[in-house]
Amino acid sequence: MTSTLSRQSDFLRRHPMGLAAVLFALFIPFHIVLPVDQSIILAGVTLALIGGAYIGFAARADSANVFWMELAVAMLFGLTAVLGITVHWAFLPAGLAFHAVWDLLHHNREFGAAVPNWFLPMRTVFNGLTVQFLLLLYGAELFGA
């Protein structure tokens, strides 16, 4: 069992962008087959879930300030997801773009909660691809392009 976990962890460290591509490839079909309103809900849930990952990282931090900051930003991602579902879909790619920026801010490990090295490139690539995909998908669907 430990050997399997070690191999999986090693894969994540060596191929974070490959993992991002695989996750993105799994993400696309759902949004293509779902009606736009349901796709928007799925994208909102996705944004809220990935924003919440930082709560787990913050819980491991030794600093209460880091915990509260990460929790506040995770709540902001959740709010952005709700706004994307209830007000306008554009909040969703905007929230994902901000999440990519949030990931990059953690890159040098001098800001926020400690995050595994493989997580940052994986999330940044996934978020970047997803932002572009959602803009194309919803823009084409909703504006008749």
Structure commentary:
The protein has 145 residues and is mainly α. The chain has one domain. The chain has helices spanning 2-14, 16-33, 36-59, 64-86, 91-105, 119-143. α3 packs antiparallel against α4 (64-86).
Secondary structure blueprint with pairings:
Layout (H helix, E strand, L loop, with lengths): L1 H13 L1 H18 L2 H24 L4 H23 L4 H15 L13 H25 L2
Catalogue the unreliable spans. none
Radius of gyration: 16 Å
Termini separation: 51 Å
What is the mean predicted local confidence, pLDDT? 86
> H/E element string?
HHHHHH
Count the DSSP helices. 6
Helix content: over 70%
Helix/strand/pairing class, anyone? mainly alpha
In percent terms, what proportion of residues is strand? under 5%
What labels describe this entry?
single chain, mainly alpha
What's this model, at a glance?
This protein is mostly helical and 145 residues long.
